Amino acid sequence: MSESLLNDVLVFVFMFFARIIVTTYTYATLPVYYLWQKPWKRLSVAANCGGKPTDPSDPHSEWTREVAIPQHPLMSCQTVSEAIDKVMELYPSDKPSIGYREVLAEEVQVDREGRPIKIDGKVLRKYRLSDYRWLTLGEVSQRIDRIAKGLMHCGCKRGDRVAIYAETGVQWFLMSGGIAKVGAVLVTLFHTLNDEGLIHALNETEVSFLITSFELITRVSALSPKLPALRTVVYFEGPKKELNYSFRDGIKVLSLTELEINGQQFGHKYEIKSLDPDAECMIMYTSGTSGLPKGVIGTSRQLKEAAMAMGQVVRDVIMDGPNHTYIAYLPQAHILEATIEVFLYLGGVRIGFATPFTLNESAPGLAEGTTCDIQLLRPTIMTTVPLVLDRIRKEMYAKLAARTPVSTDIFNYLIDYKSHWIQKGYETPIVNQLVCGKVRQQLGGKLQYMVVGSAPLSPQLQSLIKCAVNVTLLHGYGTTETCGACLCTDFKDLSYGRVGAPLNGVKIKLLDWEEGGYAATDKPHPRGEICVGGKLITNGYFRLDSLNEQSFYVDSQGLRWFMTGDIGEIYTDGTVRIIDRKKDLIKLSNGEFVSLGKVSAFPPCLSFQIESALKNDPYIDNICVVGDAIVNHLVALVQPNPKTLTTLCRQLNISDSTPLAEICGHPEVVKHIHDSLIETGIKDRHLHKKEIPTLITVCHQEWSPDNGCLTAAMKLKRIAIMDRHRKDIDTMFKAIKCNEKQPRVHSI
Questions:
Q1: Between β-strands 350-353 and 381-384, what pairing exists: parallel, antiparallel or unpaired?
Q2: What integer is the mean pLDDT of 165-175?
Q3: Which of 181, 253, 281, 335 has a CA 20 to 30 Å removed from the CA of 360?
Q4: Of residues 648, 640, 636, the one with CA closest to residue 621
Q5: Which reactions is this enzyme annotated as catalysing (predicted)?
Q6: Cβ atoms 622, 615 nearer than 8 A
Q7: What CATH number corresponds to the domain at position 288?
């Protein structure tokens, strides 16, 4: 008997007896748990977590949900500037408020030949970092005032547009507060924008003041001849390096420290006056998923309405703010991160800043002996995106595979067991004790709330993370155009794969989409394009009147609505699931429609996106599915998971020194990955045959925000990826048209 077969037999025997023991214990003690935990109460509360139609007899009716939230003194504030001042009255000035880590040393990573290793054109560095250092509430308020008056000393006036083009960090937060105090208009730009997108946004808004970072100032200086309106540049100081920039004549450059010194010395000359609540206060540029970024115009009143809606989600947290810590690492130019940071800061929650390069113990930027951000900060609240959770899942399973032959099987069994009983209203304290402790330690050990947004989250991944981390996982939905979250699951919601119900002050309704086959009259659940209404809906896109007419409208009651382009399904309990996106619809040559964002509707499966489903495959880190109007098949571009790819190479006796490009084109590697993907899609995830890619290309080049393949929120930039791999896509479709059986993949 081979060693592999022997292991399989031993695992089967072990799991057989484990299931008998667990099942016997479960049903022997079920009456005790029933009386002790009172599951019917949880089920009753969970059943009321959805919205209600204003007219149950009308399938196109508006849906709403109002939840009473505790009164808070900040609710009287009309602008961010007022709220920043008000918070000083609520908490001690010496309370730790904003935390950061200083770079003590950095080391450039080199290959075997001594050449710097680059990822997406950037030199890979490892950082030795300090412990968290904290600014008190009083220091934050003082620095914001100095920044505001420093800007005014440089000539910045109420209504001027000031752009921030920088990475996430404490300086970004302070600067945004200073801009609000001046009464200027904040223009946010993702630091991953390409040159074309950056120039477009700055020239479109005619920005004269630009805030940037030490890392990006060289790039800005090179583009300055193409930025005629630019007059002043303020940069955040970085580690001790030589500055390297050369701006065109007429541009004043100063550091944040110099700006604050000016504000301190000359601040007595200036008076701070915030904007009117209905005046334009921000232009938030999108990440440019489908082309040039679009600026979305928002007012202080809309931001307040968004904050009031968010208050429903974190109502328990905000009344106990000083006892919570939030880890901030997502792009502050993203509406989700920006609004949550401000909201939690005003609620007294400590905010510790981190970076993806040093976030967790497997992050690539950690120097040996340096503790990762999340384990040092030990947050109670975390915002994340599905791609980050998917990486956590794969890291989890890699560690399990390295332990014993039964570790993965027993882990999966206990997680499925916990998920099953949670949905019946029970808690599982023994499973929590056996499984969750080590997983929670990877995230600091104190995490209570995890907010997930930006992209669809598969039910399987949601269930796994919620059960393994033993955390309250809130899955939300929103857009820049809705000023952030407009739908979100409730604390007590027990469902998976949904985005909850409308938040306070939000209305939604479904619009029929005939071409996609969705209608509000569909059975068993109404389906259609989600349309969001409320006082939080923004003023529209900056200088894009035609697009505004297509995307926004005001109804007869004076309420403003935004047509999202996302397709939703409303369940009988009033919760919503995102099932498709209009832009992702592809018509095959046989007349069938396949949506790359489509959720399979074949019972009895749960619905989830094709790409989201296939990313559950252990060999896949990311995937872009591509269709063609004259071919009846889909193809895919695949980003392999480095760890499982390494394991596969060892199984196939491929040398560790083999270049990655050669590995990705190896026929046996390709066949194994494609077979696994097919099995994941059909056997495990129940996707229909036509939704499984017929051919794949395994890509050795990473997709990231830095090379324009992902947005800063880690969503696919489909057009950019397809342009990058156009030759490979054409080759795959040509092979299908010619009925070629091989190759199944084409190396890049």
A1: unpaired
A2: 95
A3: 335
A4: 640
A5: a long-chain fatty acid + ATP + CoA = a long-chain fatty acyl-CoA + AMP + diphosphate
A6: yes
A7: 3.40.50.12780
Neighbour tally for 111: CB within 10 Å: 9
Is residue 280 a part of any domain in this protein?
yes
The torsion angles phi and psi of 204, rounded to 5 degrees, stand at: -65, -40
Angle (CA) 237-240-246 rounded to 5° is 60
Spatial contact of 383 and 337, defined as CB atoms under 8 Å apart = yes
Q: Is residue 295 part of a domain?
A: yes
pLDDT per position as a tens digit, 232-252: 999 999 876 778 888 999 999
Alpha carbon distance 597, 618 (integer Å): 21
Q: Report pTM.
A: 0.85
Give pLDDT tens digits for 331-383: 999 988 988 898 899 889 999 999 988 998 888 888 889 999 999 999 999 99
Contact 284, 333 (CB under 8 A): yes
The reply to whether 707 and 722 lie within a common domain is yes
Dig out the tokens for 233 from the structure. 């540049």
* pLDDT reported for residue 584: 63
| Cα 540 from Cα 437, distance rounded (Å) | 46
Question: Does one domain contain both 683 and 537?
Answer: no
Q: Are 620 and 639 in contact (CB under 8 A)?
A: yes
Provide, for the chain, the percentages of residues in helix, strand and coil under a 3-state DSSP scheme, each rounded to the nearest 5: 40, 20, 40
CB 614 within 8 A of CB 623: yes
Nearest to 690 by CA among 620, 607, 590: 590
Domain that holds residue 459: 385-583
Distance CA 372, CA 356 (A): 10
DSSP tag of 275: P
Tell me the C-alpha to C-alpha distance, in Å, between residue 4 and each of 1, 464, 599. Answer: 8, 27, 37
Number of domains in the chain: 3
Q: Scanning the structure block, which residue is given the tokens 């989700």?
A: 336
**Are 612 and 548 in the same domain?**
no
Please give the structure tokens belonging to residue 177.
């507060």
Residue 705: pLDDT band (50, 70, 90) is confident
Q: How many helices (H) and strands (E) does the chain have?
A: 24, 33
Does 670 fall in a domain?
A: yes
The residue among 102 and 689 whose pLDDT is bigger is 102
Which domain-ending residue is among 305, 337, 362? 305
Average confidence (pLDDT) over 423-432: 94
Residues 228 and 248 in one domain: yes
In a domain, 176, yes or no: yes
User: Are 544 and 637 members of one domain?
Assistant: no
pLDDT in tens, 710-730: 877 677 888 788 888 999 998
pLDDT band at residue 111 under the 50/70/90 scheme: low
